[in-house]
Write a structure and sequence with these properties.
98 residues, alpha+beta
Length: 98
C-alpha cells in the first residue's frame, strides 16, 4: 500500500478494539500491495466486514507492516461476500477454511 504522506504510522492501540464472538470455520486474509492507500484499505475493511475504525486501522497496519492480516472470521458464504467487497479495489484476498 502506498503512503500518501511521509509520516510513519504507529500501530493503533489494541485496547480500543472491542472483542466480539466469532462463529464459522472460514477466515479472510488480506495481502499488502503497493497501490492502495491506508485510507482506502481502512474504508474497504469497514465496508466489507462491518468492523470499527480502530479494528480496521489495526488490520491495515498489519497488512502494511507484516504483509498480510486476518481481517474476518465467519461461515464460508459470509467470508466469500466480504472478500468480494475487498477485491473491488484491487486488493489480493484469500478465503481459507480453518
Amino acid at each position: 500500500m502506498s503512503e500518501p504522506r511521509t509520516i510513519e504510522r504507529i500501530r493503533p492501540d489494541l485496547t480500543e478494539v472491542p472483542i466480539s464472538r466469532v462463529t464459522g470455520d472460514h477466515i479472510v486474509i488480506v495481502f499488502n500491495n503497493d497501490y492502495n492507500t491506508w485510507d482506502e484499505v481502512i474504508g474497504i475493511l469497514q465496508k466489507a466486514t462491518g468492523c470499527c475504525l480502530a479494528e480496521a486501522e489495526n488490520e491495515t497496519w498489519e497488512v502494511h507492516h507484516l504483509g498480510r492480516s486476518l481481517v474476518h472470521h465467519g461461515d464460508r458464504d459470509e467470508c466469500q461476500r466480504a472478500a468480494a467487497v475487498i477485491r473491488t479495489i484491487g486488493i489480493k484476498v484469500a478465503v481459507e477454511q480453518v
